[in-house]
Structures are given as C-alpha cells and as structure tokens.
Design goal:
- This is Cytochrome c oxidase subunit 2.
- Belongs to the cytochrome c oxidase subunit 2 family.
- One of its GO terms (cellular component) is mitochondrial inner membrane.
- It catalyses: 4 Fe(II)-[cytochrome c] + O2 + 8 H(+)(in) = 4 Fe(III)-[cytochrome c] + 2 H2O + 4 H(+)(out).
- Mean pLDDT is 85; it is low at 1-8.
- A hairpin with a 4-residue loop joins strand 8 and strand 9.
- This protein folds into two domains: 27-100, Helix Hairpins (Orthogonal Bundle), CATH 1.10.287.90; 107-243, Immunoglobulin-like (Sandwich).
- The radius of gyration is 23 Å and the shape is elongated.
- Helix 1 (27-59) runs antiparallel to helix 3.
- A five-stranded mixed β-sheet has the order 5-4-3-7-10.
- The longest helix has 33 residues, at 27-59.
- The protein is α+β, with helices and mostly antiparallel strands and 244 residues long.
- Helices cover 33% and strands 28% of the residues.
- It has helices at residues 27-59, 61-64, 71-100, 230-243, and strands at residues 2-5, 8-11, 107-114, 117-122, 130-134, 156-159, 163-170, 175-179, 184-188, 194-199, 204-210, 222-228.
C-alpha cells in the first residue's frame, strides 16, 4: 500500500509479487535493510566467481589442473571465505546487540498473543491503564482501500519520534509479534516476557502478522501500529480513558 506523506510515497505494507522489503520507518529497520543489501552484494560476487571457476574447469582442461592438489589454491579458498565471514559477522553482531538494546522508553505497551487475536495494555499512562483486544476485520466488513487479512478493529497507537518498548508474551501457545517496517520481531511465549523497542520516525500505518504457526487461524491475527503526532496521541489516550 502506498501512503502519501510529506510529498513522498511510502510502501508500508506488502504488495502482490513484491520482492523488496517494505519501506523502513525506524532506525533499526533501516539498518536491517542496509545489512541485507550489503550481504546480497557479497553473495552476488561470490556466485559470479564460483560460477566462473566451475565453467572454466569444465571447458578448459588445462585450467582444471590448478584446482586440484595445489597447496596455493587450498590456502586461497580457505583464507578468502574466512575474511568474508569476518566482514559479515562484525556488522551482524553489532546489529543484533543494537536490536536488543532498550534505551529509556517513554512508552511501554504489553502485547499478549491469543488464539487468535492480540490484546494490548498501556500500563504506564497516568493511574488508569488502557486495555483492549485487537481482532482482524473480516473480508465482508472491509471498506474501500482496506487491506484484506491485515486490518484490525483496534489499532495500536503510538507517538512519532518516541522510544516505545513492547513487552510480549503469549496466553496459550507460542505466537510471534512481527512488524517489518519497524524492524521488530519477537516470540510471544507463555510464561515468559520478551521485549522489543522501536522509534517511529514518521507518521504512518504499519502492518505485521503473527510469524509463528499457532493453530488453524494463525494467518488471521494481524498487527497494525499507527504512528501519529504527539497531540493526536494525547487525544486518543483521553478518548480511550473516557470509554473505559
């Protein structure tokens, strides 16, 4: 789905036959896409080199003798892959540790996976917490422009440019909380708390789904996070508190 925002078009949801990732809306998501692109470039070079060596060995009999029983070639194809793995490992570890880092969150949301819906709790807003369930909207109730199997009746509302922590668990079986545009994914395990954090850099609606096979309706428990301005978020909190 294309979202018109600040004179730019963003792909915040997957499309049919899409090959690339959704557009990132968080710093971690951007780093994940950059890391993926770097690795794909390295893989392309390796594939071309290995393919050229194989074809040369097949069609050039004189070239084949340099690929077997040679100390030099053994050293080369042991040393070069080790160096490549080091170049991949260091940024990978750095990214993994940055994804696990939770830096002074201004807002904490508890997400609980059920068969087959999500429930959310804003526990650190004033004295009264906000709790609600989020169910997928059936195809028969969708309005024009809605995304099939991705729309929910109650969205998670978060303010932009705010560090948000999501504490994740499961109520029955193992689920998985994943929102690709924000670069977050963690298992929701009964009896255990996992946490992820993100910062939405721009307003928008970001879609995710349960990424762990959890039963017959596994594909019918989507996640929708809407990032809004600080003023709209405060208005939404006041509205929810009045409803409760």
């Amino acid at each position: 789905m294309l979202v018109f925002n600040n004179m730019n078009f963003y792909k915040d949801a997957s499309e049919f036959s899409q090959l690339s990732f959704p557009d990132s809306a968080s710093p971690i998501g951007e780093q994940l896409i950059f890391f993926h692109d770097d690795i794909m470039f390295i893989l392309l070079l390796i594939t071309m080199l290995v393919g050229w060596m194989l074809l040369s060995a097949i069609y050039n009999k004189h070239y084949y003798k340099y690929l077997v029983e040679g100390t030099f070639i053994e050293i080369v194809w042991t040393t070069i892959p080790a160096i490549i793995l080091l170049f991949i490992a260091f940024p990978s570890l750095q990214l993994l540790y940055s994804m696990d880092e939770v830096i002074d969150p201004s807002l904490t949301i508890k997400a609980v996976g059920h068969q087959w819906y999500w429930s959310y709790e804003y526990s650190d807003i004033d004295e009264e917490s906000i709790e609600f369930d989020s169910y997928m909207i059936p195809s028969s109730d969708l309005e024009e422009g809605d995304l099939r199997l991705l729309e929910v009746d109650n969205r998670v509302i978060v303010p932009v440019n705010t560090q948000v922590r999501v504490v994740i668990t499961g109520a029955d079986v193992i689920h998985s909380f994943a929102v690709p545009s924000l670069g977050v994914k963690a298992d929701a395990i009964p009896g255990r708390l996992n946490q992820v954090s993100f910062l939405a850099k721009r307003p928008g609606t970001y879609y995710g789904q349960c990424s762990e096979i959890c039963g017959s309706d596994h594909s019918f428990m989507p996640i929708v996070i809407e990032a809004v301005s600080q003023e709209k978020f405060v208005s939404w909190v006041e509205m929810k508190q009045e409803e409760m």
